[in-house]
């Protein structure tokens, strides 16, 4: 997936006719020039919870603006260094809504999500307050869908018309830009008018050949992610406390799902891929340890990647008396040798993913 920064998302919104605040991007070292106040200053990083991190500030004059921008440009948000800020007019917000169009992989069609409880902590909003409408891909957005969303959100006639136009344009972006996600949170009522106060657009990797304009958009990495890429290791840093080592994207994602099912939060997504190199396993495991997880789940299906190779790499890093809580679910080529290596090192071997997930999340066996 190719995540676009907020300001690029808003440029797309403007192109398709979705109202956005007037704004401009400034990079580290730029001279900030701005005429009208108050303004909002926002870190441009590919991470959420910027507001809670103090990476969104307000300024009522030039001195406050320069100070806010300088502070934000020294910050790290979600592990990402801030290199750009978006300065834009401060909106007089009466109410915040949430809108998005993404893929429903179960029903294999786009789905429209809307809530009258937009803004911060949208993840905490109960499902009962999020309205979902599946969009038949060969038919697209229909008027009844727009009326239903307007009614669910309790909008008057003018705002109902405005949100209908915005949803139509979001769907155009979703289709024409080959997006996986088009999200506005919050969509704000500024007085009989709706404005996209934020923009999140993710483009499908496999469609990038149709969108060369996005290839120059820099993708941000944490320090550990950057080092992992240099070592050709598929590594994504998350915000939880349980490390995951698996091989193959599907198995790794299934492991993330199992951890989440048992109430755990993954700290890292590490896909070893196909390797029979003990040194690569060691480098990968060292990266996982650097995020300081409280536990690690190793889920390997041995084929190209031999089970005993993974076991040797991990044990060589940990030594024979690991203090780390580890569950190793190993299947496939040389699995008996791997189990013995883990057992000799005092690492718990488990037979199923379910058992491994419960062990690292709940402490059960």
Report on the structure:
The chain is α+β, with helices and mostly antiparallel strands and 365 residues long. Helices cover 33% and strands 27% of the residues. It is built from 10 helices and 19 strands. Strands 1, 8, 9, 10, 11, 12 and 13 form a 7-stranded antiparallel β-sheet that branches. Helix 9 (335-344) links the parallel strand 18 and strand 19. It is globular and about 70 Å long.
Structure described in brief:
With 365 residues, this protein is of the alpha+beta class.
Topology summary:
Elements: E1 2-4, H1 6-16, E2 23-27, E3 39-43, E4 56-59, H2 62-72, E5 76-77, E6 80-81, E7 84-89, E8 95-104, E9 109-115, E10 131-134, H3 143-153, H4 157-176, E11 179-189, E12 194-196, E13 200-203, H5 223-230, E14 234-237, E15 242-246, H6 249-261, E16 266-271, H7 278-290, E17 295-302, H8 307-318, E18 325-332, H9 335-344, E19 348-350, H10 353-362
Parallel strand pairs: 15-16, 15-17, 17-18, 18-19
Antiparallel strand pairs: 1-13, 2-7, 3-4, 3-7, 5-6, 8-9, 8-11, 9-10, 11-12, 11-13, 14-16
Helix pairs in contact: 3-4, 7-8, 8-9
